Amino acid sequence: MSGEGNNAALVRGIFPAAVGDVPAEYRLPQFVEQREYVVNGELKKWDGPQQDIVSPICVGDKPTVIGSVPLLDAQTAVVALDAAVAAWDQGHGMWPTLSVADRIKYMTNFVNTIKHQRDRVVNLLMWEIGKNLDDSQKEFDRTVQYIIGTIEALKDLDRSSSRFQIEQGIIGQIRRAPLGVVLCMAPFNYPFNELYTTLIPALLMGNCVVLKPAKFGVLVHQPLLEAYAKCFPPGVLNTVYGDGSVVVGPLMQSGKVDCLAFIGSCRVADILKKQHPRPHRLRCVLGLGAKNPGIILPDADIPTAVSECLLGALSFNGQRCTAIKIIFVHRSMQAEFERQFSAAVEKLQPGLPWTAGVSLTPLPEPNKADWMADFVKDAVSKGARVLNPSGGLTNKTFYFPAVLSGVQSGMNIYLEEQFGPIVPIVTYDNISEPIKYMFESNLGQQVSIFGRDTEQLSCLVDALVNQTCRVNINCQCQRGPDTFPFTARKDSAEGTLSVSDALRVFSIRTLVAAKATDLNKGILSDITRTRSSKFLSTDYIF
Asked: Is 396 helix (H, G, I), strand (E, B) or coil?
């Protein structure tokens, strides 16, 4: 452990000495040995090697192994993919040809089923990725609301499509059809919510799915495996586990994946896309890296800027793609902003996830604290300084946030995404400096600007909406509400996610057309009246 500060004692004693020191309601009842995975509507048992799941919460001086999951081989992963391919059946399968109303019934049953697993999922989120209790509960509840909201959005979409159009003597009905087989891969920071933001719309639109949980946060799906197997027709939802290089590569190389939904790094996304033998047939929905700036203008309200940047930079220890990862402060505001901001960071409470009021928790990635320390060491060696007394305090998997002043070009933290509890602050004299930073960046998700002058804010908005996909005024960068589009420019994303946009991104506009002759009018009228087609329909879903 290194560093000095008021939080030194808290950091030094952050971990329990024994399991008995953990509140009874948050202890894991037993070692979670998961050998099951889902293929073709069945819970299969894996008898091969397992991967230990190591919690970032140390008990005593040792890392805590809380369970294990299957390390499937390539052959087994391909069997799961083939189950999805068979369920798709070139678009003739039960699920892709099912009516929208019937798919909604399946999904409604699914969401009602998983609600009963809330406490288990929340507890596993705390133990496996160190997310605090309040945020873990919010992740589950927000996900349930996301499913319900997506169902309602699908009803709206279907209603708007449940009519015929006549243009230039052509009758047509335009609806949305599924893409095929979708591979959904989750990130560790929101292993439940972020996965479902792709999984749910993909399923609702009639696609068949192979689900690959995140490397960390994988056990949170264990309580849900039975629902995955039983709530959908066979082959519609399948799971694979194991080393991505072993199990995912063969799936992509098969050419049988029609859509890749991946949230993670650009490097891995590039590898996956290149493995597909038919790249023009592959639809990609990607959420990738971000280096979202916060820009403090000369007339900004400092308390507002401090509170919003604090939330934006350090919620879940800064492990969010939407986090504010670098702050540009006008020189006239530098001293006061840095004073208030570093003081606010010092007041954040370190502790274990179930501790009331805790804001800072252990980091799930191995050696992440060392990686953070390397960022700080590099910056300090090149002229930056750590503002807050507790900045850089470490204890095994815990790292107290470091606020860096004097950050400039040439330091690793200036361009690299830290995805963790470091807040770099850059001083600028002319607004052209942060704008140039954004223009030259390879990333373009969001920006937060803080100020009062409407003319300057207007100019910044007009300049930055063409560099990012969300400009936040006097508030943090964030994803929600889920009805708002979530996307990005440059290397930060492909595709748009929201409760309505995601339904579109996992489907394609398709139409049936006929000349407006008496014969064709009679045929179309007959089809809709007898409900003999699931696609051609004028039914209204309430």
From this structure: coil
pLDDT at residue number 4: 56
Q: How far is CA 494 from CA 60, 163, 259, 444, 526, in A?
A: 44, 31, 12, 11, 41
CB atoms near residue 119 (< 10 Å): 12
Task: Answer yes or no: are the C-beta atoms of 404 and 412 closer than 8 Å.
Answer: no
Determine the pLDDT at residue 149.
Answer: 96
**56: closest CA among 16, 1, 8, 4?**
16
DSSP 112-173: HHHGGGHHHHHHHHHHHH---HHHHHHHHHHHHHHHHHHHHHHHHHHHHHSS-EEETTEEEE
Per the CB < 8 A criterion, the answer to whether 208 and 88 are in contact is yes
Contact in structure between 345 and 405 (CB atoms under 8 Å): no
C-alpha to C-alpha distance for 203 and 88, rounded to whole angstroms: 11
d(CA 72, CA 307): 45
**What is the model's pTM?**
0.95
Distance CA 370, CA 362 (A): 13
Which two three-digit tokens encode residue 541? 């879903």
* Opening angle at CA 139, ends 201 and 64, nearest 5: 120
The pLDDT of residue 5: 61
Q: Which two tokens stand for residue 244?
A: 């991505």
What tens digit of pLDDT does each residue of 253-281 get?
A: 999 999 999 999 999 999 999 999 999 99
The residue type at 248: V
Q: Which residues of the chain have pLDDT under 50?
A: 1-3
CA distance 194 to 188: 9
Q: Sort 235 into a burial class: Cβ within 10 Å, 0-12 / 13-18 / 19+.
A: buried
Pairing of strands 283-287, 259-263: parallel
Residue 8's H or E segment, with its range, is helix 8-12
Tokens 């509170």 -> residue = 307
The pLDDT tens digits for 33-43 are 999 999 999 99
**Stretch (H or E) spanning 82:** helix 74-88
pLDDT score recorded for residue 29:
81
Measured distance CA(287)–CA(147) in Å, rounded = 19
d(CA 158, CA 175): 8
The answer to whether residues 386 and 404 touch, using CB atoms and an 8 Å cutoff, is yes
pLDDT at residue 463 in the model: 94
Q: Where are the alpha helices (DSSP H) in 321-480?
A: 331-346, 368-381, 412-415, 432-440, 454-464
